[in-house]
Design goal:
Length: 258
């Protein structure tokens, strides 16, 4: 059965429009230039999960009318990818069970530090809804099952920081990447759809440029590709006009069958 992955957010760490920004994208009335921070939603046979929990997560989930999230999978622990985690607090109480958080050890350590109230037993809660219900599950590079979906982690580099991309069947999500290690390329073979981070035209030390992402897409040869984690420098329609066939910018609310 075909399901639809939803791009919840397609923006960079500051979003579009950014504070004080006067680029064409920031001043645009085109809703596809309104980019919240990067995340995707994956419906599974036995529940729903998100990849990353950006600061606008509540807005993203309510916009797409997603009533519940059972788990969150993390690429890395930068603020624009974890600081919406408390928005899942309501899901744990609706489920009467912990929301599972799947990540590598350094990400778990950062989440525990950033949301210490959720994991500390030192301070009693003021009321029973004050403390989120979360449970960590450590992941590595081996494939695993999540709510009935087979997930293949993909090692990527975000500058010098090791991060994860993820493959779900014939769709791969690889945001915040500036280099793909040689051992990871085979995991991107045979894709129908690649969602790949591409920040802007100008070089950046921790993100692919548009041209670098196009080189990756040419090597991987998916049927189609969408660029995400897009900066406020990139106006949606103008950028799409110069992209090759089969490649376009992602946008908030984009649905991808997988």
């Amino acid at each position: 059965m075909k399901r639809e992955l939803i791009v919840l957010g397609s923006g960079s760490s500051v979003g579009t429009p950014a504070i004080g920004c006067e680029t064409d994208a920031c001043l645009s009335d085109n809703p596809k230039n309104n980019r919240t921070r990067t995340s995707v939603f994956v419906p599974a046979p036995y529940g729903n999960f998100v990849v990353d929990t950006p600061p606008e997560l509540r807005i993203q989930l309510t916009r797409e009318r997603i009533p519940i999230v059972h788990a969150a999978l993390f690429t890395h622990s930068h603020a624009d990818h974890i600081f919406g985690l408390d928005d899942l607090r309501i899901c744990g109480f609706k489920l009467e069970a912990p929301v599972e958080l799947l990540c590598e050890e350094p990400v778990e350590e950062q989440i525990r530090q950033s949301f210490n109230y959720a994991f500390s037993a030192d301070t009693p809660p003021a009321h029973r809804f004050a403390i989120p219900k979360f449970a960590f599950r450590r992941v590595a590079l081996e494939p695993f099952e999540l709510l009935g979906v087979s997930v293949q982690p993909i090692r990527l580099l975000h500058g010098r920081l090791p991060v994860l991309g993820f493959r779900f069947g014939d769709v791969a999500f690889c945001t915040d990447v500036s280099e793909i290690p040689e051992q990871s390329w085979p995991l991107l073979e045979g894709l129908d759809t690649l969602v790949l981070g591409a920040l802007r035209d100008r070089p950046h030390p921790t993100h692919f440029t548009i041209d670098q992402a196009l080189e990756v897409i040419e090597r991987v040869s998916p049927r189609r590709a969408f660029l995400t984690h897009i900066s406020a420098e990139m106006e949606h329609e103008e950028t799409n006009r110069r992209l090759p066939n089969g490649v376009e910018l992602a946008y908030d609310g984009l649905r991808i069958a997988f």
